[in-house]
UniProtKB/TrEMBL annotation, chain B:
Entry keyword Iron: yes
Function: Could be a 3Fe-4S cluster-containing protein.
Family assignment from sequence similarity: To ferredoxins from P.putida and C.tartarivorum, ferredoxin I from A.vinelandii, ferredoxin II from D.desulfuricans.
Ranges where the 4Fe-4S ferredoxin-type domain occurs: 20-52
Entry keyword Metal-binding: yes
Domain of life of the organism encoding this protein: Bacteria
Name by which UniProt lists this protein: Ferredoxin-like protein
InterPro entries in the record: 4Fe4S_Fe-S-bd, ETF-QO/FixX_C, Fd_FixX
Matches recorded under Pfam families: Fer4_ETF_QO
Keywords: Electron transport, Iron, Iron-sulfur, Metal-binding, Nitrogen fixation, Transport
Length: 432, 94
């Protein structure tokens, strides 16, 4: 291919499509390369779409994007083997357009998003794996692909190649991913008649519920579970840190099957037909794990740059936003007639710092470390809370004062008074 | 069918026959590896422990997550590339 491009975007996920679309709209000549058969065929997410991020790029996305259900209810469950204790927040305010969050199916959504990019002028080629970045004198000048002899040159490359950014590692832009900075999530999609989903979750047509779960479903590991309602299916999964998976003997699929068998979850998926099983890594290292995200002729966005807010389960919106900001940086430089040098691309980092992306990640910068060293947040506390609730709720002739005393003693016996105070402080430090 | 085979049976693949994208570099290192944690952590069960203590790898059911490469951080004994364009797992839903 003798043709040259302003920008090559590697990947057609959330970050890649956002970047490619923004670049083309900004008048740049864009080549997007995707290794899947179609955009989305290699991509895995829960998945929730946050309207705000996509709306900033495609304001009328609701008109034709494949959306499953808008979310009107958020459940957070802390679980032990027999129980869950939770908070449910449901509001009619979430049931008024424009809706804030939607469940989506990535294989469908990514094809739509990529179609928008192509309509804006992007050339997307699928079934092509980028094998390395072309570098000359420390500058990225293009990519090499697995198509015969295919070296393709461009003035800049945006890496939107996901959680396993082989290109960035091979080029020496970032070190290999460390087990403590990434979670492995496995999930399944289960089909049920639409009316069954709506009656089980007490929702109307197009309304949806999410359940986020923590506690013993992660088998002592730092991790969480989730269950999302789609139109005619439910996706559910569980993810834990790889550093924890490494130290134990439960396989990821056993963990998922245990979760599905939990007495609070099994009835929700009873009678369903499982149609796909998927696994994916989620960058969870947070602020401190973010690598260098730009250099001479290159920028990184999305999961490849570790842009995930683990505690709030946000990733796709960070991917869309970082892809958009990387593209805007290039569009502005091109318009000003300035080269895509590292010095000029530093503008991307400034945009990131000014956005919610870095502000949120910075706020939770201590969280991964604190949770890594305090696994009892995932094991001891869920059990203590569950027992406390049960003690209070069960009517058995024991007076309430004695019950309260027993609960207090159970907490002190497990964690000691100082331990409890320390845990409260650590939790506050993690999220302050 | 084992539990994991039942799950993978629902998935769609285009296998690049004879060209596995993941390779164990030194089989001897695996034999001496204390935990052989790849045999536990791979979500597709691609790694299995053989009778002689070796680790066998079959990449056909690979979900391309990268777990095996990252957890082998003490030995770095996994050579891991993406499959050729268009090959490997093809998610219907993702």
């Amino acid at each position: 291919m003798a043709e040259t491009f302003d920008v090559i975007v590697v990947g057609a996920g959330m970050a890649g499509n956002a970047a490619a679309y923004t670049l083309a709209k900004g008048g740049l000549k864009v080549l997007q390369i995707e290794r899947g058969e179609t955009p989305g065929s290699k991509n895995v997410q829960g998945a929730i779409l946050y309207a705000d991020a996509i709306e900033r790029i495609i304001p009328d996305f609701r008109e034709d994007a494949p959306l499953e259900r808008h979310l009107i209810e958020q459940r957070v469950w802390v679980m032990d083997d027999a129980s869950y204790m939770g908070t449910h927040y449901r509001s009619e305010d979430f049931n008024k357009p424009p809706y804030n969050r939607y469940t989506i199916i990535r294989a469908h959504f990514d094809q739509w998003f990529n179609k928008k990019a192509r309509e804006a002028g992007v050339l997307t080629i699928c079934e092509t794996t980028v094998t390395e970045l072309l570098q000359e004198g420390g500058r990225v000048v293009g990519v090499r692909t697995d198509r015969k002899g295919a070296e393709i040159r461009a003035a800049a490359v945006i890496l939107a190649d996901g959680a396993n950014s082989r290109l960035a590692v091979k080029a020496g832009f970032q070190p290999e991913v460390r087990p403590e900075n990434v979670a492995l999530a496995v999930k399944e999609i289960h089909f049920l008649p639409q009316e069954t989903i709506e009656s089980r979750f007490n929702i109307g047509e197009e309304e949806g519920v999410v359940i986020e779960m923590a506690g013993k479903i992660s088998a002592g590991m730092m991790g969480t579970g989730f269950l999302y309602t789609n139109k005619e299916s439910i996706t559910l999964g569980v993810g834990c840190m790889l550093s924890d998976f490494k130290e134990q003997k439960v396989t990821p699929y056993e963990l998922l099957d245990r979760m599905k068998a939990h007495p609070s979850i099994a009835p929700l998926i009873a009678g369903s037909e499982m149609k796909e099983y998927a696994a994916h890594l989620i960058p969870e290292g947070g602020y401190n794990a973010i690598p260098q995200v730009y250099g001479d002729g290159w920028l990184i966005s999305g999961d490849a740059g570790q842009f995930v807010n683990g505690i709030h389960r946000e990733g796709s919106n960070l991917a869309i936003t970082t892809g958009m900001l990387a593209a805007q940086t290039l569009v502005e430089l091109k318009a000003a007639g300035r080269p895509f040098s590292a010095v000029n691309l530093a503008a991307y980092k400034r945009k990131l710092d000014d956005s919610f992306v870095m502000k949120d990640l910075k706020k939770y910068r201590r969280l991964p470390e604190i949770f890594h060293h305090n696994k009892h947040f995932f094991t001891t506390y869920p059990e203590l809370f569950s027992k406390a609730a049960q003690t209070l709720i069960r009517v058995d002739g024991v007076d309430k004062k004695s019950k309260e005393k027993a609960i207090k003693q159970s907490f002190i016996a497990s964690r000691s008074l100082l331990g409890l105070i320390g845990d409260a402080f650590k939790f506050w430090r993690a999220v302050e | 069918m084992s539990k994991i085979e039942e799950k993978l049976f629902q998935d769609r693949y285009r296998v690049d026959a004879g060209r596995p994208h993941i390779r164990i570099k030194d089989a001897g290192l695996c034999r001496d590896c204390r935990n052989q944690q790849c045999t536990v952590c791979c979500p597709a069960g691609c790694y299995s422990r053989e009778a002689g203590g070796q680790v066998a790898l079959t990449t056909d059911g690979c979900l391309e997550c990268g777990t095996c490469r990252i957890i082998c951080d003490e030995h770095r004994n996994v050579e891991w590339e993406w499959p050729r364009g268009g090959f490997g797992i093809l998610f219907k839903f993702g």
